[in-house]
Amino acid sequence: MRLFESGLLVALDKPPGVSMATSTRKEKSAARVVERLLAACGEPHDEELRLVHRLDVGTSGVVILARGDAAHRELSRAFQSGGARKSYRALAWGHPTPARGVCDEPLARDPKDGRRMRVARGETGKRAITRYETLARLPSVADLRLHPETGRTHQIRVHLSARGHPIVGDDLYGAGTRWRGVRSSSRRRALAAISRPLLHAERVALPDLSVDVSAPLPSDYASLLEVLGGDA
Fold first, then answer.
1. What is the pLDDT along the chain (232 residues), one digit of tens a residue?
2. Identified catalytic residue from 13, 56, 170, 220
3. CB atoms within 10 A of CB 78
4. Sequence-ordered list of residues with C-beta below 8 angstroms from that of 134, at least 6 positions apart, any chain
5. How far apart are the two ends of the chain, measured CA to CA in Å?
6. Among candidates 199, 207, 116, which has minimal Cα distance to 153?
7. Are strands 60-67 and 199-206 parallel, antiparallel or unpaired?
8. Whole-model pTM?
9. How many CB atoms within 10 Å of residue 68?
C-alpha cells in the first residue's frame, strides 16, 4: 500500500515476508528488490524508484523509496546522518524493567552463526542505541514502542533478546518455544500461530524534508493484541 508520495519520494507499507536483502547476484540487486516490493504492495513497476533503506524480511511497515538518483543521494544522507527519526512497535516476551529505558549494548556479527548478530563489548562491537517505552503490559508479553538511534543489522531484535525479552515469533533470537508456558489455551494458540517476528516499522519522519509517514499495525499484530486484551 502507498502511504505517501511527493516529488522526492514514495513511502510504502511493506508487508511481512518480502525480502529486501541485496547482493551482487542479479536476482538480489537493489532494482529487483524495489520491483518485488512494489509488486507485494500492489503498485506498478517504476524504474525511477531507488532503495534508500531496508527492513528485515519479517518486519512490516514504512519503507522509503527515492525518486531518481538526486533524491536518493539526499535521502541517503538524511538516513546516514541521523536526520531520519524512526519508531517501531514490537510485542516482546515478558515485561521490561524499567518500563522505559535505553539499550546501548554494542553489536557485532556472531562468528558461530552468520545469520545472527550478538552483543559484543570491546573493539569488535559497533555502537548501537535503542530507546524503548512500554505501551501496555499484557499477559506474558509487553507491547513496546522503540526508537533506534543507530541502524545496525537486527538491532532491535538483538537488544531485546539480550535483555531477556525476545520478540514474539522471533525464533532466531530465542522466542521459539516461549508460548508453551502460557496458561490460557486460546492465548497459547494465538501466540504459537505467529510465524514471523512481530516487529513493525510504525513511523519514519524526516523533519528537514517535511516528511512524516506512519503505517497502521498489520493484521497479525492487531489480532494478537485483541486476543491478549490490548488495544490496536
1. 999 999 999 999 999 999 999 888 877 899 999 999 999 999 999 999 999 999 999 999 999 999 999 999 999 999 988 889 999 999 999 999 999 999 999 999 999 998 999 999 877 899 999 999 999 999 999 999 999 999 999 999 999 999 999 999 999 999 999 999 999 999 999 999 999 999 999 999 999 999 999 999 999 999 999 999 866 5
2. 56
3. 19
4. 95, 96, 99, 100, 142, 143, 144
5. 19
6. 116
7. parallel
8. 0.94
9. 14
| Domains of the chain, CATH where assigned | 1-81 (3.30.2350.10), 82-232 (3.30.2350.10)
Identify whether the C-beta of residue 66 lies closer than 8 Å to the C-beta of residue 5.
Answer: no
Active site residue 171: no
d(CA 161, CA 156): 8
